[in-house]
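Comment thread on ticket #2218

A.B. wrote:
> Attaching the input chain for the structure job we discussed in standup.
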Amino acid sequence: MRQLYFSLLFLISSCIGESNFILPPYTGAINEVVIVIDESLWDGACGDSLRQSFSTEVPGISWAETLFDVIQINKKSFSRIFKTHRNLLIVQKGQQSKVYFDNRTYAQNQWLCIVEYQTIADLQNLLGQYAPIMAFQIAQKEQERYTTMSPPRKHFESLSKGFNLNLGIPRDYKLVLDTTSFCWLEFNPLDKEIIKGIFVYEYPLINSFNSQTILSARDSVLQKYVFGSSEGSYMTTESLYLPHISVHTHNMFEVLKVRGLWKMQNGFMGGPFISNFINDKLNDRVLVIEGFLFNPGKEKRNSLQELEWLISDFKIQSSN
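C.D. wrote:
> Ran it. Output below, let me know if you need it in another format.
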């Protein structure tokens, strides 16, 4: 027994010796970023470069919500409680000016970037060049964490057979409406005032594929299928807020991504939405995958971001 004890002790010591120690889990809320930088730099042009990339407003929300929640601390305050934060950026003096994304992190699955500089001019140049890349990497890391930790999804037959679409949906979403050309799924818990919905629909590709035609088609389809609780009410695009439209490519398909606000015409509900309009020339159609959110009085960024990740994880199946 004594021999077994020492054998196990030797084995554990060897493992600890190889990796030094087991890293703790990361801390902090989603989309939080801790930036370790002296206040004199943060209050000047260097801080402006970081704020320009990290604190931009998220489009498609009726009030101002920034891309990340930034926590700035100086080097003296950089204690153990901050070292394990999920997204950590350290700005410090060094023997050369460089930016590197360190694999020797303080916590599991942590995003860690270190900016070293010799002169303030060097630092300004580095942040001007790399701050957008940092913001992009953090967003990608958050999506990776969500995908890894998200609950199991299921595939609805109405999506795969009706639209030749491979799209996994969380199990707590329920089917609200299913027609030959429009499918509506929704998360609407009884104990919370929140609705997260997904629309999937298609229409013939007979007109130009641009912002004007897709928004017109959206309003036409939603007026036909999505009604409010009051008589004569239906969902439509809020015209007082100009939707933000960007062009993407997904698995060789041209996609117009729309971020905007929806409202109930002749009703009182509203909120943000995000849509993928997919130019499916092989099947002579426009396929639309849309997420919408109703969560009055609450911050929208994180929930809308989850919907974006969800509706963007799709694959169009072969019709053969």
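A.B. wrote:
> Thanks. Noting for the ticket: The mean pLDDT is 90.
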